[in-house]
UniProtKB/TrEMBL annotation:
It is found in: Cell junction, Tight junction; Cell membrane. It is a multi-pass membrane protein. The keyword Membrane applies. Belongs to the claudin family. One of its GO terms (cellular component) is bicellular tight junction. InterPro entries: Claudin (IPR006187), PMP22/EMP/MP20/Claudin (IPR004031). This is CLD19 protein. The chain crosses the membrane at residues 12-33, 45-70, 90-113. Keywords: Cell junction, Cell membrane, Membrane, Tight junction, Transmembrane, Transmembrane helix. Gene3D superfamilies: 1.20.140.150. GO terms for molecular function: structural molecule activity.
Length: 138
């Protein structure tokens, strides 16, 4: 295959791997899960790491799709013996790729916004040993 196709393929594989690891890290960083540390600050930092992985995944997808689209545009406008009706054009897969890349970057950005505020970083968080409904009032 051509070099631009192999490069796009490699970028998409890297994007898939980054997205997979981003999902795993983000699930560990969710406040509702019991996996990992119980500290909310640590959980939010783990979620931010998952967001960074999602942003990198989206950028790899964007680079792969844009590289292929650039090559298609170059081939379309290049003077060649191939008739105009036999040349490649943008297909729906390119638009789906651009949409997926933008949504992945947006989702990663939202995960990165879950970082705690500076004034709350140094505070200690304590869990109650019993739920409030199980307490006895004397």
């Amino acid at each position: 295959l051509a070099v631009h196709i192999q490069t796009s393929r490699a970028l998409m594989v890297i994007s898939l791997l980054l997205g997979f690891f981003g999902i795993i890290v983000s699930v560990v960083g969710m406040k509702c899960t019991k996996v990992g540390d119980e500290d909310p600050v640590t959980k939010s930092r783990i979620a931010v790491a998952g967001g960074v992985l999602f942003i990198l995944s989206g950028l790899c997808t964007l680079a792969a799709v844009s590289l292929y689209a650039t090559r298609v545009t170059y081939e379309f406008f290049r003077e060649s013996a191939v008739p105009i009706n036999a040349r490649y054009e943008f297909g729906s897969a390119l638009f789906i790729g651009w949409g997926a890349a933008s949504l992945t970057v947006l989702g990663g950005s939202l995960l990165c916004c879950s970082c705690p505020a500076k004034e709350r970083r140094g505070q200690q968080y304590y869990r109650q040993s019993q739920p409030s409904t199980a307490r006895e009032y004397v």
